[in-house]
Recover the amino acids of this structure.
């Protein structure tokens, strides 16, 4: 089948192993229609067997995160908490995706980062669309978008000094890894989940990665924005956390330079501004 809309064919620079232990891509493979069809034919059995979100450990951790003072702004200091949780309750993931979430817990920053982005995107989409189904779909994409980051070596992820050219190249491939994993786990190449996994580091100018294409999907834009904001307010091995005000100043400069869409940034600015005001 024809799936792949390409600017240029992507080459993979490392082996990718799925959570079931199967090597689903090898160094030197090219992401094209033949590769994607082969990937679909490799899918494991049972991918249609769904598990309710409420029964996953992920759900309990998400509720705890909403109580963290750092993330109270997502639920407007608890005022929107029930609306967010009720909207997410019907979500379901198949068993292999649930296993991938369990593996992601081995990377505490990236695990909580994915939860925070999922919750914040859910809140933004509830306000943006006034449609619980669309908000839930967007949150599902946000929860799974960063699976590929765990296929980057911990040496690169935890490096304190600046990354060299080859390390940056590998780090910038992680959206491709997410795309490949999600297709193997049952999502189609043109599903929203896979497209968000592939496209969450592209920008409005076409200067992002891995494909350097112009970002035109609103959910991708929101995931990208929330990804940037949560990364900025979180301590990383190579720098301390920014304050919410400092983070928004950086993000607003990215709007001025044409990298980010002003509409979702305005919404995030309102949430963060409300929290900053209540803390003042």
């Amino acid at each position: 089948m024809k799936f792949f809309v390409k600017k240029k064919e992507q080459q993979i620079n490392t082996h990718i192993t799925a959570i079931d232990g199967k090597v689903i891509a090898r160094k030197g493979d090219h992401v094209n229609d033949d590769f994607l069809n082969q990937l679909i034919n490799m899918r494991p059995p049972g991918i249609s067997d769904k598990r309710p979100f409420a029964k996953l450990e992920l759900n309990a951790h998400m509720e705890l995160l909403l109580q963290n003072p750092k993330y109270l702004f997502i639920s407007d200091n608890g005022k929107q908490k029930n609306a967010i949780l009720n909207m997410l309750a019907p979500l379901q993931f198949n068993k292999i995706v649930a296993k991938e979430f369990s593996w992601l817990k081995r990377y505490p920053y990236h695990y909580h980062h994915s939860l925070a982005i999922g919750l914040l995107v859910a809140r933004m989409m509830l306000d943006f669309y006034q449609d619980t189904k669309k908000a839930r779909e967007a949150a599902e994409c946000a929860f799974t978008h960063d699976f590929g980051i765990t296929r980057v070596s911990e040496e690169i992820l935890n490096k304190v000094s600046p990354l060299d050219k080859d390390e940056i190249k590998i780090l910038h491939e992680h959206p491709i890894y997410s795309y490949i994993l999600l297709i193997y786990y049952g999502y189609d190449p043109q599903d929203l989940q896979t497209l968000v996994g592939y496209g969450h580091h592209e920008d409005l100018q076409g200067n992002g990665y891995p494909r350097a294409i112009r970002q035109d999907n609103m959910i991708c834009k929101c995931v990208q924005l929330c990804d940037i904001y949560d990364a900025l307010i979180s301590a990383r091995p190579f720098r301390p956390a920014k304050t919410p005000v400092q983070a928004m100043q950086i993000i607003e400069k990215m709007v001025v330079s044409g990298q980010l869409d002003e509409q979702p940034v305005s919404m995030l600015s309102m949430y963060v501004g409300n929290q900053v005001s209540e803390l003042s």
In short: The first strand starts at residue 10 and ends at 11. The chain has one domain: 10-279. The mean pLDDT is 90. Strands lie at 10-11, 16-17, 23-25, 30-31, 50-52, 92-94.
